Amino acid sequence: MSLMASSIPLTVYRADSTFMDALTFDKLKQFAFRSIDSVPEKKGWGFTNFDDMFDVEWTKSVPEKGRYFAFGVRIDNRSIPSSIVKKHYAELEAEELERIKAGGKKFLSRERKKDLLTLCKVRLLSRIEPRPAMCGVAVDTATGLVYVGSVSKTVLELLESYLKTAFSSVPERISPDTLSGRLPFDDFLHDLYTESMTISLNSHEYHVAEQGQAMLAQENGPSVSVNDAPDSARAGLESGLRIQNLKLRISRLPDEEQASTFTLHSDFSFTGLRTPRVKREKGDPDMDAVFFLKMGYIEEVVTVMHALFRQFCGEKK
After folding, report:
1. Residues whose CB is less than 8 angstroms from the CB of residue 133 and which lie 6 or more positions away in sequence, other chains included
2. Which H or E run includes 94?
3. End-to-end distance of the chain based on CA atoms, in angstroms?
4. How many other CB atoms are found less than 10 A from the CB of residue 273?
5. Which of its termini does the chain have fewer beta carbons within 10 Å around, N or C?
């Protein structure tokens, strides 16, 4: 998903010097998205323009945006419902049986059936338009933090593999352990749920509070969602359940209205991240103005939560 959407999923990485040195516009072009429209492939992927996933030539804008290096990873998918495959395979098999009967044969070999199934899928794939999607990526070249607009395991694994192919290095995914893993992260979520926290950072004071929505679960057990039911949540926590994810709100004091909301997960990923609204004014010649505002809000959320967790770990030592 684009990092510019009103509500985004977010996974944060940290890049090393090897990755940063290899991150160039030329590399993006070398590993740009290649269309699978004319080939019977299920999936195609590659780099594209951050501002327009259909611009694989970067004619509308360049990836360098101030201290950020921004690009998209476009992923096109084709899928065929199994019932459609069965239907067309049955027709193809019937035609093949009619053909071989003339030669005195009555049955198809296992290998021939496999070949027909492959042929059937190739034919169907060639008729189906791929569905395009994009995952936005913004690399802060000053800090090495990499902001990725996805929490999907499939997408992140594909992204990591492709980054390795293109840049010979993969940024490290930030988790509670990479930040300050002295305590179980669910202790942090538990304390946030029971009492709001404040932190002073970069000459500002931030207030972080839960928003009544949490997911509780036993270790390797079933989970239960709690919405605005503190008594039920308290009973669950007292019975040994742990918080898997928690909806939070960050506001910069004293302006409580300028706030961001999101759900924080136990692997330190974010979903449903909504920052204060940013809007490009009509006629504004600065195309990247909205980008800088949006990234500033995203960076603020990530920085505050990382710092708050480190502070929490220090206090609990």
Report:
1. 1, 53, 74, 75, 76, 77
2. helix 82-101
3. 38
4. 23
5. C
- Among residues 225, 266, 214, 221, which one has the least CA distance to residue 240? 221
E-strand ranges in 195-254 read 197-201, 204-217, 223-227, 242-253
Angle between helices 110-127 and 82-101 (to 10 degrees): 130
The pTM for the full model equals 0.86
Question: Are the CB atoms for 270 and 301 separated by under 8 Å?
Answer: yes
Per-residue model confidence (pLDDT) at position 18: 95
Task: Please give the Cα distance from 94 to 268 (Å, whole number).
Answer: 54
Write the CB contacts of 312 (distance below 8 Å, at least 6 apart in sequence): 183, 188, 191, 197
- The pLDDT mean for the chain works out to 89
- Residue-wise pLDDT for 188-222, tens only, equals 888 898 889 999 998 899 999 999 898 888 777 77
Domain boundaries, given as residue ranges, for the chain: 8-79+128-173, 82-127, 177-315
DSSP-assigned beta bridge partners for residue 225: 215
Half-sphere exposure of 99 (CA within 13 A, CB side): 7
